[in-house]
């Protein structure tokens, strides 16, 4: 119920055409990883707090809020198959109708899976709340 | 390969407003 906290590195974002799909997200993660590698920049350390209300992102160094994403804007989450330390989600932009895939690098494959399963559990709990509230 | 994990959000684009 309370936020579960994870410490990850932000790889980046890319636009996607659909709110979900294994191949779509795999292709998006591939693009993000390639861009991050090409830039050669140090990745931003971020803290991710996951709850049935959504995902809150903070900059780990400054504790500054990056984004508070409502669960209703998140369509999909995955632990990537090719890049197995990568966790990613697809979210509808706050500003317009576009869909964005955001990817994060975890220290271990198990951690990418744990974040994905935690977000999936948040989806389920949010759905239970929603059904009750209806 | 079956070890990919991915989940759709059942409340995506739903709201409690209506």
- For the secondary structure, the number of strands of chain B is 1
Radius of gyration of chain A: 14 Å
Beginning-to-end CA distance, first to last residue of chain B: 41 Å
Secondary structure: helix percent of chain B:
under 10%
| Secondary structural class of chain A | alpha+beta
Shape summary of chain A: globular
Strand content of the residues of chain A, in percent? 35-45%
Helix content of chain A: 25-40%
Mean pLDDT of chain B, to the nearest integer, reads 79
Order of SSEs of chain B, N→C? E
- Cα(first) to Cα(last) distance of chain A is 19 Å
Q: What's the helix-strand series of chain A?
A: EHEEEEEEH
Give the strand order of the largest sheet of chain A, numbering strands 1, 2, ... along the chain.
4-3-2-1-7-6-5
| Largest interface, Cβ cutoff 8 Å | A-B, 29 and 15 residues
Overview of the molecule:
The complex is a heterodimer of chains A (134) and B (18). Helices cover 32% and strands 40% of the residues of chain A. Chain A is of the alpha+beta class. In chain A, strands 4-3-2-1-7-6-5 form a seven-stranded antiparallel beta sheet. In chain A, a hairpin with a 6-residue loop joins strand 5 and strand 6 (86-92). The model of chain A has no long low-confidence stretch (mean pLDDT 96). Chain B has 18 residues and is mainly beta. Helices cover 0% and strands 22% of the residues of chain B. Chain B starts with a strand and ends in a 10-residue tail after the last strand. The chains are: A alpha+beta (134), B mainly beta (18). Chains A and B meet through strand 5 and helix 2 of A and strand 1 of B. Strand 5 (74-79) of chain A pairs antiparallel with strand 1 of chain B, so a sheet runs across the interface.
């Amino acid at each position: 119920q309370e936020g579960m906290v994870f410490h990850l590195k932000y790889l980046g974002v890319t636009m996607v055409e659909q709110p979900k799909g294994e191949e779509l997200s795999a292709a998006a993660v591939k693009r993000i990883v390639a861009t991050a590698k090409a830039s050669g920049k140090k990745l931003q350390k971020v803290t991710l707090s996951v709850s049935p209300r959504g995902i809150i992102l903070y900059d780990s160094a400054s504790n500054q809020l990056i984004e508070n994403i409502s669960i209703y804007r998140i369509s999909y989450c995955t632990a990537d198959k090719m890049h197995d330390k990568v966790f990613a989600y697809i979210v509808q932009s706050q500003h317009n109708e576009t869909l964005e895939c955001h990817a994060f690098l975890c220290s271990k494959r198990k951690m990418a899976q744990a974040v994905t399963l935690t977000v999936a559990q948040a989806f389920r709990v949010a759905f239970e709340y929603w059904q009750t509230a209806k | 390969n079956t070890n990919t994990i991915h989940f759709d959000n059942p409340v995506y684009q739903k709201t409690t407003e209506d």
